[in-house]
Amino acid sequence: MIITFIRTIILYLLVVASMRIMGKRTIGELQPYELVIDIMISDLATVPMQSTDFPLLSGVIPIFTLITLEIFMSYASLKSRKVRKFLCGEPTTVIKDGEINYKKLKSLRFSKTDLIEELRQGGCDDATQVKYAVVETNGKISILLKEENSPLTKADAIKIFSKQRGKQ
Amino acid sequence: MKDVIIATVILVLIISVSATFYSLSMNFCSDMSDGLQQAKEALIEKDYELATQNTEECMQVLEKSNIWLSAMANHEELNAMKTGLLRAQQYIIYLDDKEAMAELGELTGLINHFKKSEQVTVENIF
Fold it and tell me: Between A21, A53, A57, which is nearest B72 by CB?
């Protein structure tokens, strides 16, 4: 029993250290492959934690290997655009000037309903109001509304007020 | 850059530890196989004293390697080796040739399986 306790402490520290090395990003910001690596690490740690028949190293070595590969790949993607494109893919524009690009939507396996749902969450109920909608590499959709549909900003208010003062 | 240096150090450590374990396990397997073969030959010649001595040597090899072996091999497999060796020893002490030979044969199989599973081959990788 005490062996399991000690093993659990060791593996807990190892997983925490590995997550620290991997960086401070939240789940929503992770690239899909990074999320898979995180899940793999946690899964690898549970096997030697549960069973004392498995040597601790059978969990430790794959965890460390995954961490090192992750660091190398992140560094390579930071240095090379090609590697970044291979690992993360590229953002895809699915709406341009109010027109939905169904071909790209299909290639992303995104339905129109999904897109409209995302638009609603982004504060817009019609695709024609959108200037650009881009599916980012982490799967999130960035929406840029057309000028006439975008909310009033402080800069707009200043412009209006300065125009009015000019008239007076 | 700091992370890359840490990763490189970890990678070098993993490779060196794996290589060390690989070489240690191959030596262990050859020592055990030799000891078991000698015990078998001694049994064929009905030299029970020599057979007991050989199994004792095998037990010493196993005990000596236990520290690093338990860190890398499946503990169930190691326990099977230990109990098999103890059983073979007892059969030899009680002059039961057939059972002793069967037990030594099983142990040789276990050692060969361990050796095969540790070798870097395409079969093992896939």
Answer: A57
ipTM of this complex prediction, to 2 decimal places: 0.74
What's the CATH code of the domain at A105? 3.30.240.20
Q: Which of residues 48-87 of B touch A (CB under 8 A)?
A: 70-76
In sequence order, what DSSP letters do the residues of B20-65 get, joined into one string? HHHHHHHHHHHHHHHHHHHHHHHHHTT-HHHHHHHHHHHHHHHHHH
Query: Is A96 found in the same domain as A139?
Result: yes
Residue A20 confidence class, pLDDT cut points 50, 70, 90: confident
Distance from CA of A63 to the nearest CA of B (A): 11
Residue A92, helix vs strand vs coil: strand
B123 in contact with chain A, both atoms CB, cutoff 8 A: no
